[in-house]
Write a structure and sequence with these properties.
Distance between the termini: 42 Å
Strand content: 15-25%
Helix content: 25-40%
CATH class of the largest domain: Alpha Beta
Strand order of the largest sheet: 3-2-1-4-5
Largest sheet: 5 strands, parallel
Number of helices: 11
CATH superfamily of the largest domain: HUPs
Radius of gyration: 19 Å
CATH architecture of the largest domain: 3-Layer(aba) Sandwich
Length: 274
Amino acid sequence: MSQHVEALKAKGGSVGFVPTMGALHNGHLSLVEKGLSENSIVVVSIFVNPTQFDNQDDLIKYPRTLDADVSLLKTIGDTTILVYAPTVEDIYNDNITSQAFTFGGLEHEMEGAFRDGHFDGVGTIVKRLFEIVRPGKAYFGEKDFQQLQIIKKMVELYKMPLEVIGCPIYRAEDGLAMSSRNTRLTSEHRAVAPFIYKTLKTAKIKFGTKSAKDVSEWVEKQFKKQPLLELEYFIIADIETLKPIKRKSTKKTYRAFIAVYAGDIRLIDNIALN
């Protein structure tokens, strides 16, 4: 993989990179298309990373659809997309453990507080893939906004020679953020799941005139009325530190972050507030 990329660079080509865990959907394709618009070739990695799952049942059930993923990618670029699908042994040899990272405290907020060791696993695999693929630019969706900020911090800390680019959340027509986990939703849960984004949009409007505490309490009340969805957290945070808001400031930029269970499927989303 590394030799192939270096040979391309030697000819003056540029390399974009979209790391994925497969089960590709239109959200992934939007990242690849952005990469194709800015690079000679885009490498798409497809690898279900065992070290970022705190729930082993979730790891086992995670969809693995490599043939379908490759077919989908061919619809947007047959010669300009390179699929890299390593095995667990390729990446970890016989040592399937995470490197311990410090991301300036970003790793302890939100997802880090609810998913033990998750961002050590993310950092481990993304750093390894960056070292193998050596892209000039890497593309990540803003649905995993905390992950995006953490990867930017890792690139800064390790002085990696690449640019990390965040891309807008890709949504279904009814507003549900695209996720590989959506395919595992029951028909009942899929029908009610757009309530998550609908609630975020109203929370954004309320944030213009009300305190963060009032908005959070309103969101909690809305989910108590929705028996098919269980709210895990709703947090309004500073996008730089990811720390929950204490007092609203016109000098800071905020996002609302949410995690919800639809049955046993965990869905996350977020929205810019100002």
